[in-house]
Design a protein that fits this description.
19 residues, globular, mainly alpha
Length: 19
């Protein structure tokens, strides 16, 4: 999962929002 890299596996939109 690439989402885990953004520290939010439950929020795939994090990479876009950068929140």
């Amino acid at each position: 999962l690439e989402t885990i890299w953004y520290a939010r596996p439950w929020r795939p939109l994090t990479k876009k929002s950068s929140k």
